[in-house]
Amino acid sequence: MSASKTPFLWGAATSHHQVEDDEPSDWADWTRDGSRTIDRSSAGHALGWWSGRAEEDLTLAATLGHDAHRLGLSWARLEPEPGRFDEQAFDRYARLLDHGHGAGLTIMATLLHFTLPRWLAREGACLAPRFPERFARFCDRVARRLGDRIDLVATINEPSVLAFMAYAGKRWPPGLGRIDAFFRALAQLLRAHAAGYAALRDARPDTEAGIVLNAPRFEPASDRRRDQLAAHLQDRFFNALVLDALTTRAARMRGVVGPLRGEVLPHIPGLRGSFRWLGLNYYGRYRVRFDLGAAGTLFGAHETTHNVRMGHAEGSTDWGELHADGLRDQLLRFAAASPGTPLYVTENGVMDPTDRVRVLELERHVSAVGEAIARGALVRGYFHWSLLDNFEWAEGWQAPFGLVAVDRASGVRTPKPSALRYRELIAAARARHSGGAP
Ligand code: BGC
Hints:
Blueprint: E1 9-13, H1 16-19, H2 26-30, H3 49-63, E2 68-72, H4 75-78, H5 87-102, E3 106-112, H6 118-123, H7 131-146, E4 152-157, H8 159-168, H9 179-203, E5 209-214, E6 217-220, H10 225-247, E7 253-255, E8 262-265, E9 277-281, E10 285-290, E11 300-303, H11 324-337, E12 343-347, H12 356-374, E13 379-385, E14 404-406, E15 413-415, H13 417-432
Parallel strand pairs: 1-2, 1-13, 2-3, 3-4, 4-5, 5-9, 6-10, 9-12, 12-13
Antiparallel strand pairs: 7-8, 10-11, 14-15
């Protein structure tokens, strides 16, 4: 796993379940009867990446000016039974990765992007006591089998989001809906990351391994003390808990209110400093208002205008309010938390069926990355979410985030104006700076 070939990487991101056909995972089971997604769909055949379309989409990314791509590897496919690895599945990924490199793309691969093997789901999913150890064994195998074909490895995508949606919440599997499960799942995910990181580096000491964190901005909706406290609490538990545990000695965090009094995240050996780079997924800002009725979200409700979910159905995911300055600020925060660590924007995008908002926001967010760099953040790449309109978890198929539209009946791909604008932004950055940064 060589270090990235170009100083600044430009690309888009995907994840396996969202584009690959028929992934045999917990998500396939969760969505089978259609009752779990807003449009009663499942990923199903998705965008056909597994049966062959990955290659043409990676080629398309390259023709759109990208020099990097972030994708997911399916643990469920690669280890269909505990300890039994599927060599043909490894071969399929090897071909896909070779094709990506052949098209000139630097590859970042994520090893756990929300979905789990069925056998692990039966053992208790992330709360299974042996989950960290099992994830480490998987990481070891990936490093040995595919390590020379992957430039940057992300262990886990967005631990806080997975713990929130699937353990505190009920919309993602296993859907426990318990606040205490949030903290237990988060601790387990961080243990798994630490163990996975060590396994990757043991197997291949040059592995460029990191972790991807989702870090929205939480701001008080007013100057009132209680709104400030509510925003602070959401930021602490969603963002700071994980960032601090990874970067400082203060891995032991203490809760401050009621049921959260006491230790909420235990000390995790090997966690601090367990990354060669950090990934930031940033979608927007939440303005938080104190609300006694919002116990499940630490007594903070979100006041949102100009939502990322442009014109979207009620009851769907709230990705926050579009706010490009927040991307700059979160990059600077990561840079301050871990001076000298290379940072990547591993996801940033807009749920926008019109594509008009995406064009504007792409420009604003790319320039926010430029501002963060100008102020000293070591940002090494930007991956737009997503390359293609794809399966958007509990939203199903009706939440388009792609630079490229897909007609699922015919399979035809059509780059949107935003894809063409992105190509221009990339070309302009390359013309301006030798490293190609914005
Ligand atoms: C996830 C993606 C998802 C995107 C938009 C991120 O939280 O990593 O899988 O599609 O946000 O919701």
